[in-house]
Amino acid sequence: MKKNKKDNIVGSSWMFDFDHVAHVVHVQEAFTPEECERIISYGNTFKNKKGVVVSPNQEVRKSNIVWLGLCEESKWFYERLARIVTDLNNQYFKFDLNGIIEAVQFTHYKHPDGKYKAHLDKIYNGTVRKLSAVVQLTNPNKYLGGELWLHQGPKPMIVEKHQGQLTLFPSYTLHEVTSVTKGERHSLVCWVNGKPFK
Known about the structure:
By secondary structure, the protein is of the alpha+beta class. It has helices at residues 33-43, 75-93, and strands spanning 2-3, 8-10, 15-17, 25-27, 49-50, 61-62, 64-68, 97-99, 104-110, 115-119, 129-136, 143-145, 148-151, 157-158, 166-170, 174-177, 180-194.
C-alpha cells in the first residue's frame, strides 16, 4: 500500500482516510478555584438524587446528581462552557454540533464507594451526544481516588487533577471515575449534541 498526497491509504479496491479527530483535549484553567467553589455552592442549594444507569447492574454507578438547567444563576457557566467547547471543537474535533441542549449535570462522588465504572456517554435511540465535557470542581487536596480514566488503548489514560480543568472528549469514548477513597469530589458534566455521525 502507499500513501498519497491527500493523506489517504490506497489499496487495491478501497481508499482509507486517516482519522485526525483528537482523543482528548484539556483546558487547565477553564474556571478559577473561586468560580469552582461558587458552582459547588450553587449546586448544593438543590436537592440531589441518586445517579442511575440504563442497566440491570446498578452497581455500575454510585453518585448523587443535580440537573442544573439554564437560568439567570447558571447562565455564566453555560456561556463559558459553550465558548470553550466551540473553540476546542473548531481546533481539534471539527464535529457538526448543535449545542448544549441537555441540562448540565452537577455530580457528587463521596467516600467510601462513590464511583462510575467504565461507560459511554453515547445514547442509543436518544439525543446524539458528540462531545463530553467534564469540569473538575473540587480541590484535589480534599479527596483521594475519584480519578477520571479514559480507555483509549491497552492502558487507561489517567486525567490529571486540577481544580477548574475542563476535559473534552468524544462521547463514544469509554471512560470511568474510580472510587473515591477519601473525602468527596464534585464535577460539572455537559454533553454537546449534534447531527448523527455519517
